[in-house]
DNA sequence: AAAACGGGGAA
DNA sequence: TTCCCAGTTTT
């Protein structure tokens, strides 16, 4: 009944979009390529300019690449435009302007993957193949309460199978467009309209109030690179300066040597120029770099390059910040420190 | 299996 | 800011 409800919703609520009037392969193909990872509102003006400029696939095939790219300018993912143009030439010249009429052959075209081949095959040729785009992932994961990450190998397989199972075989093209439209307009990523949802009563996410947590998506967490320059102060009595990390960051509440973070690891000259205060310079006896090459320290989401600078001073500063304290080097072991610090300390003692 | 590829709109 | 959009191709 899910599919029937979605189809009914579609009949009542669908947008009037130009490629929907009377599905022809060329227009459906063009719109699908343009709407890959692109909102309808953003792609629509481009679509209108393209069909105006290139009414048939032959017109597109015969255009220069410069002209195609110029018309594509601002839409992003520019390899789409090149693939579009290449495919237009193939269809125009090799296929006499006729697009392949089935999923398998459509998928061979440049820029046509699983989604686009399914969309064209179902919408134009009524082949019962299910589309799985961002909308379908969202709607199905919520309705069935599926928590498999949509960008995992397992998730891709599972959702394609589920979408295929739900496909309304009598009208696959309409159904595919319906579930996507429903996802785009009603079962939205943020603030889905559950209160007026036609399939509310059978929706797992609604029943368990977890629409906001679905679909599950693996974070692609980019690894941030950071450059740490530790200043290991030590006076003639073996006293050292330690400070607590209080900022909202890694290693919160752990202790460390005074740290200068920079865009790149600093040189000795830069340390002297920027890192040392005037009164520290006055009591400075020697400063030398402990590790020749920066130590790489990898966290789940960060890569840290660290250099320890051993700074010998006659005496440590009198007035220190309230996050800092002066400790004897024998006492260091009492403080919680990051592993990166611990390794340095152990190597000095051992 | 993961990265690269764009730009804009919404919260 | 972060997320995500009618994904595909390359590494």
Automatic annotation (TrEMBL):
Domain of life, per lineage: Bacteria
Q: Which InterPro entries match?
A: A/G_AdeGlyc_MutY (IPR005760), DNA_glycosylase (IPR011257), HhH-GPD_domain (IPR003265), HhH_base_excis_C (IPR023170), HhH_motif (IPR000445), MIG/MutY (IPR044298), MutY_C (IPR029119), NUDIX_hydrolase-like_dom_sf (IPR015797)
> What are the required cofactors?
[4Fe-4S] cluster
Which residue stretches, if any, does this entry annotate as coiled coil? none
Cofactor comment: Binds 1 [4Fe-4S] cluster.
Its UniProt entry gives the catalysed reaction(s) as: Hydrolyzes free adenine bases from 7,8-dihydro-8-oxoguanine:adenine mismatched double-stranded DNA, leaving an apurinic site
- Tell me which Pfam families the record gives: HHH, HhH-GPD, NUDIX_4
Per UniProt, the keywords (alphabetical) are: 4Fe-4S, DNA damage, DNA repair, Glycosidase, Hydrolase, Iron, Iron-sulfur, Metal-binding
What sequence ranges are listed for the domain HhH-GPD?
A: 34-185
Q: Does the keyword Ribosomal protein apply?
A: no
GO BP term (any one): base-excision repair
Molecular function (GO) terms listed? 4 iron, 4 sulfur cluster binding; 8-oxo-7,8-dihydroguanine DNA N-glycosylase activity; adenine/guanine mispair binding; metal ion binding; oxidized purine DNA binding; purine-specific mismatch base pair DNA N-glycosylase activity
Reported EC number(s) for this entry are 3.2.2.31
Task: Read off the NCBIfam families from this record.
Answer: mutY
Function, please? Adenine glycosylase active on G-A mispairs. MutY also corrects error-prone DNA synthesis past GO lesions which are due to the oxidatively damaged form of guanine: 7,8-dihydro-8-oxoguanine (8-oxo-dGTP).
Q: Which family does it belong to?
A: Belongs to the Nth/MutY family.
Protein name, per record: Adenine DNA glycosylase
Q: Which organism is it from?
A: Mesonia hippocampi
Question: Taxonomy-wise, where does this protein's organism fall, top ranks first?
Answer: Bacteria, Pseudomonadati, Bacteroidota, Flavobacteriia, Flavobacteriales
């Amino acid at each position: 009944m899910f599919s029937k409800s979605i189809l009914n919703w579609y009949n009542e609520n669908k947008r009037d979009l130009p490629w929907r009037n009377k599905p022809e392969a060329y227009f459906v193909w063009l719109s699908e390529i343009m709407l890959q990872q692109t909102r309808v509102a953003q792609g629509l003006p481009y679509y209108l300019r393209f069909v105006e400029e290139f009414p048939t696939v032959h017109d597109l095939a015969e255009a220069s690449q410069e002209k195609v790219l110029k018309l594509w300018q601002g839409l992003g993912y520019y390899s789409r435009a090149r693939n579009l143009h290449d495919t237009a030439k193939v269809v125009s010249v090799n296929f006499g302007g006729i697009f392949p009429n089935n999923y398998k052959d459509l998928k061979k075209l440049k820029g046509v993957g699983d989604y686009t081949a399914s969309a064209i095959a179902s919408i134009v040729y009524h082949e019962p193949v299910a589309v799985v785009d961002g909308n379908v992932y969202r709607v199905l994961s919520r309705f069935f309460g599926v928590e498999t990450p949509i960008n995992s190998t397992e998730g891709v397989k599972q959702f394609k199978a589920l979408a295929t199972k739900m496909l309304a075989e009598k009208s696959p093209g309409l159904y595919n467009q319906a579930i996507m439209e429903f996802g785009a307009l009603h079962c939205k990523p943020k603030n889905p309209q559950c209160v007026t949802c036609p399939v509310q009563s059978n929706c797992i996410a609604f029943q368990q109030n977890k629409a906001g947590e679905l679909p599950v998506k693996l974070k692609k967490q980019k690894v941030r690179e950071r450059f740490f320059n530790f200043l290991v102060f030590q006076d003639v009595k073996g006293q050292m300066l330690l400070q607590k990390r209080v900022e909202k960051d890694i290693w919160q509440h752990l202790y460390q040597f005074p740290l200068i973070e920079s865009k790149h690891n600093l040189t000795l000259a830069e340390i002297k120029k920027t890192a040392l205060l005037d009164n520290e310079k006055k009591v400075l006896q020697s400063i030398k770099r402990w590790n020749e090459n920066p130590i790489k320290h990898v966290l789940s989401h960060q890569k840290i390059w660290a250099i320890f600078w051993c700074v010998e001073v006659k005496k440590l500063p009198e007035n220190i910040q309230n996050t800092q304290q002066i400790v004897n080097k024998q006492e260091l072991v009492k403080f919680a420190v990051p592993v990166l610090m611990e390794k340095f300390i152990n190597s000095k003692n051992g």
